[in-house]
């Protein structure tokens, strides 16, 4: 994930807020099942707060489904990504799409094994 790529991101983080605002949550029928910590990177406390608030606002949109939600909570994240083709979340989206079938297959197999054990 870009937030963990010290010095390797395609953009320079001036305030640490953008990197601190990047995180994820997994929702299951409106309930937050797993969430990243949104720990501040260096001095990015404002970003941590913005990322957490965005995840909290999005929870209601997934009340009838399961979803992996990855956010960059700072309002200028789209601008940074669009400018000169910088990578804020694009590579994370591509990675998630490449892994989803694998993880769904593993979850299905675990569920079938548990059901068979009953």
Q: Tell me the total number of β-strands.
A: 3
Q: What share of the residues lie within helices?
A: 40-55%
Strand percentage: 15-25%
Structural class given helices, strands, pairing? alpha+beta
Radius of gyration: 16 Å
Total helix count? 4
Please state the overall shape, judged from the principal axes of the Cα atoms. elongated
Largest sheet, in brief, is: 3 strands, antiparallel
What order do the strands of the largest sheet run in, or round the barrel if closed?
A: 2-1-3
H and E string: HEEHEHH
Features:
three-stranded antiparallel β-sheet, 16% strand, alpha+beta, single chain, 118 residues
Molecular structure report:
- The chain has helices at residues 17-20, 45-58, 77-82, 90-117; strands spanning 22-28, 31-35, 66-72.
- A three-stranded antiparallel sheet has the order 2-1-3.
- By secondary structure, it is an alpha+beta fold.
- Strand 1 (22-28) and strand 2 form a beta hairpin.
